[in-house]
């Protein structure tokens, strides 16, 4: 017998689905019964099975392998029985222990005494044992990194693929017309010399080696491993990389790819992998003893997770070569869909050299990224690289294959309809299952955090709103046919703070969109920086509304001109984004290019006025034809934001944005390249002027 709508709503709320929610316009919304049933089914809850509510509640009350606590504060944990007091012991992860008494606070729960030592400790409670993750009260901060309270630093934001090296050296190194970790290292060193404290990098997660057509950095195969196409073959192998290029007859191909302004990912990916495979064919004989030892240590440290990812890559490549089918593991033979099954083991043994190739690639990528971070720090950057953690992974990829019990492969993260995306969004990715996260002791979440923090001084968490609730859309459904599902926000924030201090990395939460009530206050309290974008930081949402004065910006958020999904300063000033949206039919219903350009004229006049009011532009001169980029940067530099992040596109005055939401290949998303080499970036007079503005206003960090 089917549940009534009332009981269905109760079941959904108990399962973490937000039946009632408020949209971006402040209107109350209610999720319909059909959508609730679909989402519940994807969460493995059959609303029509008798007793499903009781079973779910029993599961939620079951003991978990990990609980979190905050340093110096009592913690409430489940505990069976009715004893008023229960003896407990905390075994510290680094030795020693703390004995205490847990006191009953309610049926099934006790309060533990406060623990003052952060870490992953073992809790012995009665006859039970579990992990107690004790977190610091906040994340590692910009002030901690700079050793200055109220520090105000600045950094660059870069799309790694867009970087250029010197053309001749790029071809000799085996580059294939897009940025690599060596280019990133060179840029970081140049930026450090101009006083930058950080370089924020587009995601470098593992993609699909057998299918370089999948190149969106926000739709990776795995967030545990790296994009091997960013490897610089000469970084380890030196002149042997040039020999591999020559032997493979690739010099002309690489030179042509290097000359392009838009990356040809399929050609470039094949060319880069051809060079790397030639080097692997000679490995380990073509490497020094220290490099071989480093490779072997990397294999041991990577363990089962590294082996599983390499096996995925090998099987995927084999399937593409055999059948031409480039889809992921859901279309493989059934016997290969289980990563720890006997058929996958047999395949790995028979194709051991191919599996080893993909491990070799990951080793080179890890060395390259670690080298870029080391160089940034050695050059004087107190933070260095800021990694970008994508919100999910491709459901056909390695992570979804290896973590099938922990991801919701049939529900995509997205966003409900709002004023910017009236149809809503479904990103076609996977999301973690909130129920499985808790049941598995957050192991998948922790390993993902550690992978992102391993070679960085900070991390930007894409769509950090998903830490509290995620808009999940069943595959094949319209974005509006989704629902918000709650996540264990407190536990996840505590784990982020704990890992942040262990790696000494700052944390930035991308909090743009429909923000839950109280979310920004919660992340600020936890020391996670939000993001304030110039275009949205205004005193109203009407055309010509004032831009917020620098002194009134938040001190708990990163300040930036724009994001990869929004127009650059020059593009906004020229209305380039409006022209693109008209060309591609993306203007809002009932709008027109002329109407939007008229509104932009009001906004442009207002920005120029407010720049003058702030003292960073002449107050008595008419607005210029060219975008006043240096004045805009001076405006943001005066805010109390601990970190000002300037996209490289704005440092260079570029008009085009990296990505245009709502498009796939009608706009050259993730393909644009910078106009000059990274070595000459700050030689440009305009770029130098803008860097001087930042250094003067924000100060050059202490060396």
Automatic annotation (TrEMBL):
Pfam families: Glyco_hydro_77. The keyword Transferase applies. GO terms for biological process: carbohydrate metabolic process. Keywords: Carbohydrate metabolism, Glycosyltransferase, Transferase. One of its GO terms (molecular function) is 4-alpha-glucanotransferase activity. It catalyses: Transfers a segment of a (1->4)-alpha-D-glucan to a new position in an acceptor, which may be glucose or a (1->4)-alpha-D-glucan. It comes from the Bacteria. It is an enzyme of class 2 (transferase). Its EC number is 2.4.1.25. Belongs to the disproportionating enzyme family. This is 4-alpha-glucanotransferase. It comes from Pigmentiphaga humi. The lineage of its organism: Bacteria, Pseudomonadati, Pseudomonadota, Betaproteobacteria, Burkholderiales.
């Amino acid at each position: 017998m089917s549940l009534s709508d009332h009981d269905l709503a109760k079941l959904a709320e108990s399962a973490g689905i937000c039946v009632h929610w408020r949209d971006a316009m402040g209107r109350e919304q209610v999720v319909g019964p059909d959508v609730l049933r679909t989402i519940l089914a994807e969460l493995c809850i059959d609303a029509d099975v008798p007793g499903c509510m009781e079973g779910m509640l029993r599961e939620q009350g079951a003991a978990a392998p990990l609980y979190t606590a905050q340093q110096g504060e009592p913690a409430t944990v489940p505990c069976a029985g009715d004893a008023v007091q229960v003896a407990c012991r905390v075994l510290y992860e680094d030795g020693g222990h703390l004995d205490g008494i847990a006191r009953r606070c309610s049926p099934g729960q006790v309060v533990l005494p406060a623990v003052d030592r952060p870490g992953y400790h073992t809790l012995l409670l009665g006859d039970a044992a579990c992990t107690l993750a004790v977190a610091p009260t906040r994340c590692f901060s910009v002030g901690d990194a700079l050793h200055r309270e109220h520090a105000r630093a600045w950094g660059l934001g870069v799309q790694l693929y867009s970087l250029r090296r010197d053309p001749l050296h790029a071809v000799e190194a085996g580059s294939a017309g897009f940025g690599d970790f060596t280019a990133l290292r060179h840029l970081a060193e140049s930026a450090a010399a101009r006083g930058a404290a950080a370089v924020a990098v587009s995601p470098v997660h593992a993609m699909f080696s057998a299918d370089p057509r999948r190149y969106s950095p926000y739709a990776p195969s795995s967030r545990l491993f790296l994009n091997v196409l960013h490897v610089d073959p000469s970084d380890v192998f030196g002149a042997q990389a040039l020999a591999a290029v020559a032997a493979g007859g690739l010099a002309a191909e690489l030179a042509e790819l290097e000359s392009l302004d838009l990356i040809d990912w399929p050609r470039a990916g094949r060319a880069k992998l051809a060079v790397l495979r030639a080097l692997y064919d000679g490995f380990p004989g073509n490497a020094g003893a220290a490099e071989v030892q480093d490779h072997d240590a990397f294999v041991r440290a990577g363990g089962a997770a590294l082996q599983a990812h390499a096996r995925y890559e090998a099987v995927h490549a084999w399937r593409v070569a055999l059948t031409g089918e480039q889809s992921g593991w859901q279309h493989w033979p059934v016997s290969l869909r289980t990563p720890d099954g006997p058929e996958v083991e047999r395949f790995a043994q028979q194709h051991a050299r191919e599996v080893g190739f993909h491990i070799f690639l990951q080793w080179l990528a890890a060395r390259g990224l670690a080298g870029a971070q080391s160089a940034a720090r050695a050059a004087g950057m107190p933070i260095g690289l800021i990694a970008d953690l994508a919100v999910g992974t491709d459901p056909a990829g390695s992570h979804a294959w290896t973590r099938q019990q922990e991801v919701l492969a049939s529900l995509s993260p997205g966003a409900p309809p709002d004023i910017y995306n009236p149809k809503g969004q479904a990103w076609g990715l996977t999301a973690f299952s909130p129920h499985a996260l808790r049941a598995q002791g957050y192991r998948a979440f922790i390993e993902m955090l550690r992978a992102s923090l391993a070679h960085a001084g900070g991390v930007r968490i894409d769509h950090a709103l998903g830490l509290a609730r995620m808009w999940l859309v069943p595959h094949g459904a319209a974005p509006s046919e989704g629902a918000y599902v709650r996540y264990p926000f407190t536990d996840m924030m505590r784990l982020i703070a704990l890992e942040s201090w262990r790696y000494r990395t700052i944390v930035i939460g991308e909090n743009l969109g429909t923000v839950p009530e109280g979310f920004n206050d919660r992340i600020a309290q936890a020391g996670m920086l939000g993001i304030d974008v110039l275009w949205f930081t205004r005193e109203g949402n009407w055309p010509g509304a004032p831009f917020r004065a620098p002194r009134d910006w938040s001190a708990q958020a990163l300040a930036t001109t724009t994001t990869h999904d929004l127009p650059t300063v020059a593009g906004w000033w020229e209305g380039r984004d409006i022209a693109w949206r008209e060309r591609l039919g993306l203007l809002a219903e009932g709008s027109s290019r002329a109407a939007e350009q008229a509104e932009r004229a009001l906004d442009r006049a207002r920005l120029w006025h407010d720049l003058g009011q702030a003292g960073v532009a002449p107050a008595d001169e008419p607005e210029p034809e060219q975008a006043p980029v240096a004045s805009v940067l001076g405006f943001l530099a005066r805010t109390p934001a601990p970190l000002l992040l300037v996209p490289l596109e704005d440092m260079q005055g570029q008009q085009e944005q990296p990505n245009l939401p709502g498009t796939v290949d009608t706009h050259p998303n993730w393909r644009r390249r910078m106009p000059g080499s990274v070595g000459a970036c700050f030689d440009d007079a305009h770029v130098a002027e803008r860097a001087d503005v930042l250094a003067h206003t924000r100060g050059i960090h202490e060396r």
